[in-house]
Amino acid sequence: MYDEKGQRYLDCINNVAHVGHCHPDVVKAGAQQMEQLNTNSRFLHDNLVLYAQKLQATLPSKLSVCYFVNSGSEANDLALRLAWQYTGHKDIITLENAYHGHVSSLIDISPYKFHQLSDAEHNPSVHVAPSPDVYRGKYRADHPDPATAYADEVKNIIEKVDKKGAAIRRSTCCTGAKHVREAGGVFIADEVQVGFGRVGSHFWAFQLQGDDFVPDIVTMGKPIGNGHPMSCVVTTTEVAEAFMSTGMEYFNTFGGNPVSCAIGLAVLDVIVKDDLQGNAVRVGRYLVSQLEKQKEKHSLIGDIRGCGLFVGVELVRDRVKLTPAAAEAQEVIYKLKEQHILLSADGPHRNVLKFKPPMCFSAEDVDEVVQKIDHILTELEDALGLKLHSVSDKENEGGKRKVGVTTASCLMQSDEKKCKCFPTFSSALNIIFNSFS
Amino acid sequence: MYDEKGQRYLDCINNVAHVGHCHPDVVKAGAQQMEQLNTNSRFLHDNLVLYAQKLQATLPSKLSVCYFVNSGSEANDLALRLAWQYTGHKDIITLENAYHGHVSSLIDISPYKFHQLSDAEHNPSVHVAPSPDVYRGKYRADHPDPATAYADEVKNIIEKVDKKGAAIRRSTCCTGAKHVREAGGVFIADEVQVGFGRVGSHFWAFQLQGDDFVPDIVTMGKPIGNGHPMSCVVTTTEVAEAFMSTGMEYFNTFGGNPVSCAIGLAVLDVIVKDDLQGNAVRVGRYLVSQLEKQKEKHSLIGDIRGCGLFVGVELVRDRVKLTPAAAEAQEVIYKLKEQHILLSADGPHRNVLKFKPPMCFSAEDVDEVVQKIDHILTELEDALGLKLHSVSDKENEGGKRKVGVTTASCLMQSDEKKCKCFPTFSSALNIIFNSFS
Predict the structure, then answer these.
(1) pLDDT, tens digit, for every residue of A158-183?
(2) If I label B114, which of A318, B194, B292, B427 is the partner at 20 to 30 A Cα–Cα?
(3) Domains annotated on chain B, with CATH
(4) CA B252, B258, B261, B267 torsion: positive or negative?
(5) Min CA distance, B165 vs chain A (Å)?
(6) What one-character DSSP code corresponds to residue B209?
(7) What pLDDT does residue B118 have?
């Protein structure tokens, strides 16, 4: 990215510009179709069919009905309508600190947002499960079986809701999926932040759950059009038929217009042509390995986690107490910006440095940003009088948690089982594991 | 428009392609900005400021805060959130047959949609006022004062809601605005269908209410980007400050991106450069005058109404009983399509032919479509054995209603007072008069 004076910035945050800012193939596809025809969705156009086919080819065959809309928020709102209609109930299980969008129905299911409201305003149909965070969450890495413990939380919510008379609930978190399905609920996978190859090893983050895991509804957004306002909901014929049976037509003026579809097609083509998913694996792994080296040097780095090119670095003042280093994270962001690097901090405590760069991010880019983080952390730690060795020692005494490279690099080495238990960032969207809350 | 075989169609329905399909200025603006930069709304860009300023210049100065979003539905949902927050209550008055969008909060306030649901599913905070339709509505042209009668309906709703303890309601229909304001409610003008000069005499349909009438919130959509997914909510500083005071940041990933703003700017420029608002006055007036001539010939035409290039022709089997001629309307649409003209039917009875062409629609285009409608109606009436004179006579006996040219042409001759009382189409969006429900 370049600012208004032509200054170059290294962009570590624009996950919307998925295949790279102003990728010529995407620009060309959009411009050509704009010149030719752009109608609303009452008109059929080949692009709509071609795009639906190409998108479906990336998904399990059961997910075969596409609804094209304009934003992740529209997608998640439609997903709720589909789920409500299919199950006949309004109960929703969502994760702590989740964010699913800005329209009013989604504020209701976004603790990241609704925690700012008074209790009276909370929707009684919305049930919040703890986020499966093994670093700072309810069940941590030293727990014998955090996956089951988090899943049981979902099970408990289901049982409690059942007692109140509501038989079915739907969207929920990863490991709880089985319980939700057993209770007749549906599983909504919110891929708005993490879809389209960002996790590297898979095209969709829900696929980290295993090849046999198929959500009932998948929502997509941000990266889908490389910045163009578009999004999509994909579901099964069963869910779509239940929705159609209401007789209420779903109409969306801009959704699925030929320009959006041309752009969507170009994005899918570029992901394959430029091997961006492979790049996410390779550069993501390199990024984590370089960050792990920094963790060995800097006591402020408490945890490194993520998949592919979606990586979080949690800063703490104390590796045992996990005191969030929010001011320090902000300082890193500001200092990096002065040095022409864009990075952001996130998480409920705003102490997680969040890497979600365009997917063409390179190893050289990793070197540039990590080197500068190294300098900034060194200065910060000098100023704060923090030293590593004593902290590291305490950490090793503190529990069963392994130190350094081991923990997170196994995450990056396509260790899917590990990856499953490491959702991380806040403000990312989640109803499901690929939450990264 | 051209189909996949290159066949030309005369387009009488694409109000989204506001300044004409693929207008070169709009395509160029979009393509150039796509090549240069397209970021999400966390980044400031001159286009955002320039566009907000240019849009604001078309509005009363009190409406000074813009929120950029991606669709009319997102805009109306945000308008609800603003209204709820500002007034502290959730009651909403909406009009019969209104349609305000497809997200779940808007289905609640869209009788056009929610009439398809069971009573149990209706939102108790939503109150439906009769649509001020003087042709087929509760108070008609033969009523001594339909405007006051419709306004009193709103007043009655407000009093009833007050008794239930809810002190404030907001969005409502035209003539009831005074009552809503007095009760501390806010007035939302939904301009998604009718804004940007379509009504001809004014840039915004709410301005038909008089120069001193200023809504609290205005929502925009469809024509704003000539097909590009974008929309806007404009409100007062009072409403915006109340919303900000919650501390909940409003963030929209795609809203206000530099490409959308570049396109929005180009659309505003073309409206002025090509005098499309003036064209809407002139061609709209000519369209109505030509349709009135058809009404003198064809008993199937019951009513002609609208403003500028938003015109409806209501077909009836009987001008006294007003029996909706839905099948005949459908037949007209199909026959026109065979002859390469696109027109649609709408209204709660699907018997209103709805003209909302791109704003570059010409007098020659009017001649082409009206001539073909003439032939089709002649054939239909021959087949049905309908004759005009007897019907016309009955109509004159039936009430005080004037016949033919007089009624609707006065509408078109910028007779705003009349125009106010003739909202018409269904499926158009409305919380306010510019409903055209």
Answers:
(1) 888 876 544 334 343 445 778 888 88
(2) B194
(3) 24-273 (3.40.640.10), 276-423 (3.90.1150.10)
(4) negative
(5) 17
(6) G
(7) 65
